[in-house]
Amino acid sequence: MKAILFDEPGGPENLYLGDYPTPEPCEDELLIRVAATALNRADLMQREGRYPPPPGASEILGLEVAGTVEAVGEACDEWTVGDRVFGLVPGGGYAEYAVLHRQMAMRVPERMTFEAAAAIPEVFLTAFQALYWLGGLASERRVLIHAGASGVGTAAIQLAKRAGAHAYVTASAPKHRRCLELGADMIINYKEEDFADCVMDVTTGQGVDIILDFIGAPYFKQNVKSLAIDGRLVMLSMLGGRTVEAVDLGSLFRKRAHIITSTLRSRSLAYKIALTQDFIKTVFAFFKNAHIRPIIDSVYDWTDVQEAHRHMEANKNVGKIVLRIACEA
Ligand SMILES: NC(=O)c1ccc[n+]([C@@H]2O[C@H](COP(=O)([O-])OP(=O)(O)OC[C@H]3O[C@@H](n4cnc5c(N)ncnc54)[C@H](OP(=O)(O)O)[C@@H]3O)[C@@H](O)[C@H]2O)c1
Question: 123-261 is classed in which CATH architecture?
Fold first, then answer.
């Protein structure tokens, strides 16, 4: 099969379309003829040699796929060749064919395109896990979502609003309008305003119950300041840095703060299956009736993958960057 490959770690210029053995599904897996995949920051880091795939995962980039079932493993009775599916994979998405575990496959809703479906798994499952499983999302909770226009951020705003929560968001100025359209209750230009002051103003000094953070060290103290008593800071990335100097633990005790870090790719298969199944049960219906939708920034042909990576590296996207895969067979 054809796949996007790289021989040496480095920049986007190292990516090329090459030949790779077609994967074979084991008994619990579906072989997917991939129609679309989508970019994640993890792909950029893996390409740079800073984020190796977990043991047993494909070395090919790509954490999500949408496409058609081409073949089924022996234990996949619920799936049929030709079914339109999408889901999370531990790697291997940037290819004509990929394998997807039968219990992590989701049916593409009738009127949804493969491009839209490919934009869902990684960011929506991440936001769902962070808000519901780790953050305790419920109606009327106050949520601060950093990088609100990111793939995960655009998913999180929608999930929070659908749950009846209040969503306060940080983003750079050109992206504010899109965040407001998604339902954000307040948008903070983090480059000009102190987000903790804004949060305290809008919550009349009470703070927020949940924070979704991707920035890490530079935001840590302001995040703690923004928390309500018993609030939860869910940290998913360290885009801005990893070392926090001189933290006064008293500031955490005063809030009875919960500091939670999480990853998704390295979780066990059982965890990811449970997450996918809970996601289907809890929020999947909202996609079918279009109350929630994947936010697509751009769709690139996979032969333009270098350009797509540069676009994400420049922080230009609002929502997901999708790759359309053209199968030769
Ligand atoms: N732990 C997990 O389970 C998990 C799962 C999925 C993703 N992630 C991580 O979550 C993060 C978001 O992923 P994504 O795919 O949604 O990203 P994305 O769509 O590429 O968006 C990232 C956005 O973050 C903002 N940003 C970047 N660097 C920043 C900095 N130093 N300070 C402030 N804002 C900054 C930029 O928006 P502005 O223009 O608004 O600044 C940028 O567009 C990534 O780091 C990714 O690795 C973690």
Answer: 3-Layer(aba) Sandwich (3.40)
